[in-house]
Specification:
It is a single chain. The chain is mainly β. Helices cover 0% and strands 38% of the residues. It has a 4-stranded antiparallel β-sheet, with no helix packed on it. It starts with 15 loop residues before the first strand and ends with a strand. The mean pLDDT is 92.
Length: 79
């Protein structure tokens, strides 16, 4: 399984996602709007332990929003 988002009215230009572990270490980063995080460390194949990971998404709106937007949340990784 993978974690991804379903962006609506989001420009591909300037899209970034950052995923952090509970100690604040960035464990994943992507500028691809169609990213799929599979629970590995920086995409190198090393499996991360189950737990809660925080994400920050930065993007520019495509139609209705102006300027850079930021969304924060969390995802639970189950093993």
């Amino acid at each position: 399984k993978t974690f991804s988002v379903f962006p609506t009215f989001v420009s591909e230009k300037g899209f970034q996602i950052f995923i952090y572990n509970r100690w604040g270490e960035m464990v994943y980063q992507s500028a691809d709007l169609n990213f799929k995080w599979n629970g590995t460390y920086k995409g190198n194949g090393t499996l991360l332990p189950g737990g809660t990971y925080t994400y920050v998404i930065k993007f520019f709106g495509d139609l209705t929003t102006a300027g850079e937007q930021e969304i924060r949340g969390s995802v639970m990784l189950l093993r």
